[in-house]
Amino acid sequence: MDLVKELSENKTILLLIPSTDYNDVVIDAAKQLSKKSLCYITLNKTQASLKELFAKRKADIENIVFIDAISKTIKETPEQTDKCYFVDSPAALTDLSLAISKFLKHNFEYLIFDSISNLLIYHGKIPSAKFISNLANKIEDTHIRAVFYALIVKEHEELIKECSMFVDKVIDL
User: What is the DSSP letter of 87?
Assistant: First the structure.
């Protein structure tokens, strides 16, 4: 899949990913989008583990800045480093929203939200859908192109259907 092409035609995309293909899709997307500036929001893996994963598969991370909502849940971290802003946890939706809003003011070409599925671990369907709706609306007011990940899992079907209304295109891998 040519993600750059898809994003040239659609401002927001929801990628539905089989859990068995998750790492491959994440790496491929990063390789494609990191040629330009990319804000990677992770509720799934720490930014350190993502950097390691990308490095192993030769994805360039020079143009990637992370918002990491996982690291602080497992270890002591600063508020931010040169290429990463740390949020307390995926449960801290207000802090996450504020961090994303700040980053949307920077001139990123792309944003990856990893993942809608992880929101459901910390929040119910309604707060998760509302959060994604608000984020999609904020993105509409910028020049940034965004990709939202969701795992194809039966328990997430309702949220995926609802979030499908907030994006320009849904791609089922």
Answer: -
Residue 60: pLDDT band (50, 70, 90) is: confident
DSSP three-state, residue 100: helix
Distance CA 48, CA 65 (A): 12
The answer to whether 60 touches 28, Cβ cutoff 8 Å, is no
Each residue's pLDDT tens digit, 90-141: 999 999 999 999 999 988 999 999 999 999 999 989 999 999 999 999 999 9
Alpha helices in 34-150 (DSSP H): 47-56, 71-74, 93-104, 116-122, 125-140
* Cβ contact 160:3 at 8 Å: no
Q: Give residue for tokens 């119910």.
A: 124
CA trace torsion 56, 86, 138, 13 (10° rounding): 20
Spatial CB neighbours of 155, under 8 Å, sequence gap ≥ 6: 120
